[in-house]
Amino acid sequence: MKRKEFRKLISVDKAREIINSLQVLPRKEASPLESAYGKILAEDIITEINVPPFPRAVMDGYAVRAEDTYACSETEPVEFRLLGNIPAGSDAKFKVSAGEAVEIATGAPIPEGANAVVMVEYSSEEGGTVAIYRPVTVGENIMKAGSDIRKGERVLRAGRKLGTREIGVLASIGKKDVPVLKLKVGIISTGDELVRPGEKLTSGKIYDANSYTLYAGIHECGAFPLLYGIVEDNEAAMKEALETAVSECALILTSGSTSSGAGDVMYRLIDEIGETLAHGINIKPGKPVVIGVIKGVPIIGLPGNPTSALMIFNEFVIPLLRKALGEGKELKKTEKGIMGTGFRSEGRQQLLPVGLIRGKIYPADRGSGAITSLSGADGFIEIPSSTEFIEAGTPVEVTLFGEVEKPDLLIAGGSCPGLDLLEDLSGLRFRTLYTSSSGGFSAIAANTADIAGVNMPSRDSRGQDGVLYNIPTIENMGLSGVVLVKGYKREVGLLVSQDKPISGLSDLPGKNLINRNLGSGTRALLDLKIAEFVAGKGISKKEFTDSISGYDSGVKSEVAVCEAVASGKAEVGIGKKACTEKNGLQFIKFAEEEYDFLIRKEIMETPEVRRFLEILNSAEFASKLPDGLHVYERTGEIIFFE
Question: Is the peptide bond before 298 cis (omega within 30 degrees of 0)?
């Protein structure tokens, strides 16, 4: 057989360009949850339930009305009539009234009428009564329904590799079958000198290491490796193996038979039955690499030397696989950084879930029982019992949760579908904490978030129609070193079932309303619009709102509002137009609000923020915003607060 020399060696950059242009196309399939570990999500996961689905106790103790405990003390306990017991998993029904209590176990549902749990340590029970020695506040020792994961929330993004944390999240929302990407990668080792591990090693033979190192590497990337065994240095045998692999795989990796020796035939076969795109890369180790395509299936011929093969695999193939599966770069197992905020320990040895954002480390703990403490974390730091407080700026080392993908930006504040669009178009990874607008302002003030999405209106003569968004709140809080970037407008109105005769604010008296929570900009806007409506009508705002059942209610998400109206639990809700169509509700607009972005000035010139702002100002973003959201002439305007 005629010896064929290397073609002109290509540069590393050119090799990356060619490999990145290869079309490696995974297919989608449903995987049982128990088999989904290590696989890649094929689509976003939107939860259809709240987690927890009901308010639950986080301590063993007694469910009571908090207001009944305010007079309790160590020296003068207050006695409560004991109604019964609710163990975890029980569906027992009790109604707690003044002076009554129900014994409750950790994880059990809170009975009707109770709004707090007294820990068992601060009580004593005797003869059908329980004495309470310590007062509790409303909500103490209770995890509210949806406080961990809210219905309609995107809990996992397409392209996420499923590890132990992600499997836990999927199980907690009831996912039995998971949409995953299956990327079949064929592995062919060539060479007369190779034998399989476990077989007898005779003179002149070596064990096949490449098949198994490549198998592990492919599996680690979330792809599906297929072993085609060892193929001898025979053109007919190699051709048969290649044609079989081409019919079954989206990508083929071979090792050996790629250099210019008389026995090396892989590059000649690719020329014969496909197209060779490159033969030889100017890199050491790993020069003898073949890149080609056979019947539309990419093939990369790696060197036979195990070290060289692994080097090329890590340098070129892993990025290709991760790109095809929607993943980013690999991370080390540990990483150093500095605390981005102070943290007070519990006075005992602690493994604290943390997130890493551009070298700064932030606690990611959402509280007892929250699986999202892990899904929102990149790793953990170990805090010894002797450490009571870790100051911001303290160097720490994070133990990473395997292969994690650090977020690019930490965003707090009010939720909005526009944020999901910004994330998707920018290619950035957001870690979002939906804390409402007031929580967003606080997160920026405490230096614990990069960006806050805010929509807080205030009565102010500087604004259009006497309403100014966000600026008065910044001024009242005395925030400095921050920047307000004007975002986009959102249509806000009443969310009503199709059969309800409600046409505007005037129809609210006598109706059952589901309102947003205090601290929400949308609720604040409703307050302003009602004040405008009643002006000059001879009634006060309080008289008007008192006539609306549920006006003092407050849920943290718009999804919860839509659910309450769609299910008939409420006649009318308050929210954005963007959520009405998929819930079959009619939308009655009463205002347009401004949704802006509050950013710490010190990070304005970072690549991540510059990319964020680039997409915010792009025509593509403007064209893809959901119905009811739109950019306007001030979108992207920057206001500095020194």
Answer: no
Q: What is the dihedral of CA 164, 165, 169, 172, to 10 degrees?
A: 60
pLDDT score of 148 more than 90: no
Q: Under 8 Å CB-to-CB from 199, ≥6 apart: which residues?
A: none
CB 145 within 8 A of CB 54: yes
For residue 641, the surrounding DSSP H or E stretch is: strand 638-641
> CA neighbours within 13 Å on the CB side: how many for 392?
7
Mean pLDDT of 419-447: 88
What is the distance between the alpha carbons of residues 426 and 550, in angstroms, rounded to a whole number?
40
Greatest extent of the chain over all pairs of C-alpha atoms, in Å: 104
Per the omega criterion (within 30 degrees of 0), is the bond before 52 cis? yes
Predicted model pTM: 0.58
Q: ∠ at Cα 590 (586, 596), nearest 5°? A: 105
C-alpha separations of 211 from 187, 224, 225, 230, 431 in Å? 6, 13, 10, 8, 38
| Residues 611 and 460: beta-carbon distance below 8 Å | no
Distance CA 24, CA 21 (A): 9
Nearest to 256 by CA among 193, 336, 186, 198: 193
Question: Which of 197-201, 346-350, 381-385, 518-522 shows the lowest per-residue confidence on average (mean pLDDT)?
Answer: 346-350
pLDDT of residue 288: 82
Query: For residue 295, how many other CB atoms are within 10 A of its CB?
Result: 10
Tens of pLDDT, residue by residue over 462-497, are: 988 889 999 999 999 999 999 999 999 999 999 998
* H or E element, residue 445: helix 436-445
Exposure class string for 118-140: b at 16+ Cβ within 10 A, else e: bbbebbeeeeeebebbebbeeeb
